[in-house]
Design goal:
four-stranded antiparallel beta sheet, Acyl-CoA dehydrogenase, about 45% helix, about 400 residues, Butyryl-CoA Dehydrogenase, subunit A, domain 2, about 15% strand, acyl-CoA dehydrogenase activity, binds flavin-adenine dinucleotide, globular, single chain
């Protein structure tokens, strides 16, 4: 407890004590993941995350604990130390980390491990996989992901960073924005253009992917002050004449876009799962507070104006959850189009945001105080609505691909 409660009965509960594990649609393996991850997260209560958020400190100890028990390789091949489980299990892992009270901060600290190296798993050579995946799964190295650029935004195909081949190396020039964890990562997976846009027959061609050292002697990394998820940094990075060995090119030169697209539906499912965790954590706190807080001689949760919005939020979160685990199951079964992954990410992010807003309102003035944690949740709940793909681009996708409507841009 951070401050005296002056006679008020306040609950500073450890969120994980209330994690439920009776989802009727989950497999045994998913329940086992839930159980094991919540056991680890129990060590990191809400107060820990508030402190990390205040101090802008990366949660290295959670990262270490998850690595120690092998969780950083949940979807990676067994021959490199992974568990080779599906996106369904990975989604349970990410939902549970977030739901433990860590929100997007805890989830983002390991997010890159779960889906981000998919291009290496799929398209890397055996030597690259051994060199890249093993230390990452063991938690000995951390990696960030550099795709977004200041001048291209969501229009990835117009990214301007370039790589020119010189002998057996490439020379990279350009910038990236929002690169998360670049303050602490030793490595980066980066997408740059190797053939100028006006020299390719299709804009999807000519982009290449490198996995290399984030060499701070040539790469300038500057943190962006931001609304929430302060424990995990996001950055602008600049690089000039950055020499990268040819052996660090992943897959075929010019094929990078196709390779990053490969992991995209998985990432949407995972971000959706993280959003769900945040929404359920907020709802739990709201329900506890509504039961405990007495005003006008009655617990505030007895008022339908408080109770009904929370009940509705549970239904919306649960509906999004069912969609999300359906999308995960279909992905694991080889379904490769994005309608369910996109829909799940959209619905989960919206339901989570609403649940977090309602949790703040349920707390009244105390919802605005850091000690009740819901203000941190609300700040973080904006993130899954914006990234890695915005709500508008998901609506564009459904409009075009599912409804067959004309492309609007
Ligand atoms: C905290 C955080 C962490 C991130 N981490 C990473 C990371 O690690 N690596 C990385 O590469 N990126 C990262 N990102 C970047 C993120 O993926 C982008 O912010 C996101 O893809 C949106 O791009 P943008 O910000 O450039 O928006 P813009 O492309 O500038 O778009 C701005 C707005 O215009 C709308 N818009 C644009 N075009 C259309 C259209 N045709 N139709 C309808 N609406 C449109 C968008 O939906 C959006 O609302 C992160 C972002 C944040 C906020």
């Amino acid at each position: 407890m951070r401050v005296g409660d002056g006679g008020r009965h306040t609950l500073h509960t450890t969120a994980t004590e209330f994690l439920q594990n009776n989802q009727p649609d989950w497999t045994d393996s998913m329940h086992q993941v839930r159980e094991a991850i919540s056991k680890i997260c129990r060590k990191y209560p809400d107060e820990y995350w508030l402190d990390k958020d205040d101090k802008h400190e990366f949660p290295l100890d959670l990262h270490r604990d998850l690595a120690k028990d092998g969780w950083l390789g949940i979807c990676m091949p067994q021959e490199y130390g992974g568990s080779e489980l599906g996106i369904s299990e990975a989604a349970v892992m990410m939902q549970t980390i977030s739901e433990s009270g860590s929100g997007m901060s805890g989830a983002s600290s390991v997010h890159m491990n779960i889906f981000g190296l998919e291009p290496v798993v799929k398209f890397g050579t055996a030597e690259q996989k051994e060199r890249i995946l093993v230390p990452l799964i063991q938690g000995k190295e951390k990696s960030c992901f550099g795709v977004t650029e200041p001048n291209a935004g969501l229009d990835t195909l117009r990214l301007q960073s370039s790589a020119k081949k010189q002998g057996d190396k490439y020379v990279l020039n350009g910038s990236k924005i929002w690169t998360s964890t670049a303050q602490i990562a030793e490595k980066i997976l980066i997408l740059v253009r190797t053939t100028p846009l006006d020299q390719v027959s299709k804009p999807t061609q000519g982009l290449s992917l490198f996995y290399t050292d984030l060499d701070r002697s040539v790469v300038q990394v500057t943190e962006i002050p931001k609304l929430g998820r302060a424990a995990v940094d996001s950055n602008v990075i600049f690089f000039e004449n950055w020499e990268v060995p040819g052996a660090e090119l992943i897959g075929e030169e010019g094929n990078g876009f196709k390779m990053i697209m490969y992991g995209m539906n998985a990432e949407r499912i995972l971000i959706g799962a993280e959003a769900l965790g945040l929404g359920f954590a907020a709802l739990r706190r709201a329900a506890i507070y509504a039961q405990e807080r007495t005003v006008f001689n009655r617990p505030i949760g007895k008022n339908q104006g408080i109770q009904h919005p929370l009940a509705e939020s549970w239904m919306k979160l649960e509906a999004a959850r069912l969609m999300l685990y359906l999308a995960a199951r279909l992905y694991d079964q080889g379904h490769s189009t994005g309608e369910y992954a996109n829909t799940a990410k959209y619905l989960a992010a919206e339901a989570a945001f609403e649940a977090c807003e309602r949790a703040v309102l349920t707390h009244g003035g105390m919802g605005y105080a850091k000690e009740y944690h819901v203000e941190r949740y609300l700040r973080e709940a904006m993130l899954p609505r914006l990234a890695p793909v915005s709500r508008e681009m998901i609506l564009n996708y459904i409009g075009e691909r599912v409804l067959g409507l004309a492309k609007s841009y």
